[in-house]
Amino acid sequence: MEELKPTLANSSPLTPLGFLDRAATVYGDCPSVIYEDTTYTWSQTHRRCLCVASSISSLGISRGHVVSVLAANIPAMYELHFAVPMSGAVLNTINTRLDTRTVSILLRHSESKLVFVDHPLRSLVLEAISLFPPNTPTPLLVLISDDAAIPAPDISFCSTYEEMVERGDPEFKWVLPENEWDPMTLNYTSGTTSSPKGVLHCHRGIFIITVNSLIDWAVPRQPVYLWTLPMFHANGWSYPYGIAAVGGTNVCIRKFDAQVIYGLIKRHGVTHMCGAPVVLNMLTNVPNNEPLKNPVQILTAGAPPPAPVLSRTESLGFVVSHGYGLTETAGLVVSCAWKPGWNQLPATERARLKSRQGVRTVGLSRVDVVDPDTGKPVKRDGTSQGEVVLRGGCVMLGYLKDPKGTTNCMKDDGWFYTGDVGVMHPDGYLEIKDRSKDVIISGGENLSSVEVESVLYTNAAVKEAAVVARPDEFWGETPCAFVSLKDDVAPRPTEKEIIEYCRRKLPRYMVPKTVVFKDELPKTSTGKIQKFVLREMAKAQRQNYTVGCIGRCPTQIFSRTSIPVGVLM
């Protein structure tokens, strides 16, 4: 056959930025963003993004420079997902719940040239920059304010966001990537297991994951999407670009409040929303809440959601879809594709099946569970554990300035090694059992903290639960459960009662030997429970509690203290 080569007509770089141009043409008069009493149309959002991109370029920001954003889920945060890469720069959204020192480290590591700062975070950023070593270049700062009339408060800020909108060129010719492999976003991992890493994604990867996410979730034209998922978290799983592609309406909120969420669903006719399993838990714990009049599609990911939480959420009228992804994949690449026959099963069995992560999405080439030492697939029996590996066009370019870290997870065998432990069921569905660091080895037996947590969540008194390894002189490690109880529970169960409850439902070696009651469990801003914090607490308590033991060691009751919990916005 005659060999034909690519031409300019068929090799234009893939980028999701063109979705905004199309939305302005097709859905120009339709609402694009709603925030409190403000509503923009897609024509207005398109114009504002071009103006901001123009203003960014006028500051000397050019192709490949990093532009950072610290902001809640407000209109400016949405617009900057387009405006920054439209200027040719790389978008870096930073977790708003990080401490000053960490923000300072990330700004220096990324060599950020410009930072957009939400006004409640002004002091945080100024303090972070004050920690820069002498003679280190500092980024320009732009203040985002809800009140457009408020000027920049001091010389630390070169402009306000609305000033950049006003002085920008609405006819700006946005900067196309020279190559679809050009970096587009830089996201730092949430740090649930280790120090944050800078994940680089290219235009091609974000394009693929965006289209992939729309297809897999079957998002229709013009949905009403409520931003309960922080946009700084993996760029809102790439849905800022996806909602533009289908001409939907973005309902923005500064803070997550379950009562407020129900009000917004009713007021705006919300059809879709996303969030970590903790979001489901919070929605189901609103007192005296009535089921929704119209179903709302809710997509959850971030940790294996306990089956009881899934069941309670669906009883309120939410239609839960469950998936799996990482910052390194820019969105969900595995989903629990639902089979029609499963609808005939009992509710408890449906919830159990839905708690599995599922099968690869259409945009991912392959997913498997392999022995991390040999690279060979484990048996598809639902019990043989191995490391989850992925392959596809939405996998990251690599970690910024970390070739060793990139090589460790993207090996010569062509797989991206996730660090997650899972099993493959006979029907080809993947189920995550743990992070590799969360597996507990007790007396030579590997036990899954997720399985123990799932049992704890079936207890009607339990609001949140997390299980980690606690060092043990005899067993090596034993499961230690951290539990927060529902506010209206009376009488409150004791440690002994929780342990006995688990003993009736779990093999003896999996039963927690220690239960720690907490008002709240420590979380990242995206709702993931920070198990590395709990592991350190369990380890510290064990070091302060030394007792000789033979066989099963006695349990230890910890003091009841409050831990600050990261909110979702």
From TrEMBL:
GO cellular component terms, A-Z: cytosol
GO molecular function: 2-methylbutanoate-CoA ligase activity; ATP binding; medium-chain fatty acid-CoA ligase activity; propionate-CoA ligase activity
Transmembrane segments: none
Assigned keywords, A-Z: ATP-binding, Cytoplasm, Ligase, Nucleotide-binding
Principal location: cytoplasm
Occurrences of domain AMP-dependent synthetase/ligase (ranges): 21-400
Residue ranges occupied by any AMP-binding enzyme C-terminal domain in the UniProt entry: 451-528
UniProt family annotation: Belongs to the ATP-dependent AMP-binding enzyme family.
Stated name of the protein: 4-coumarate--CoA ligase
Gene source species: Rubus argutus
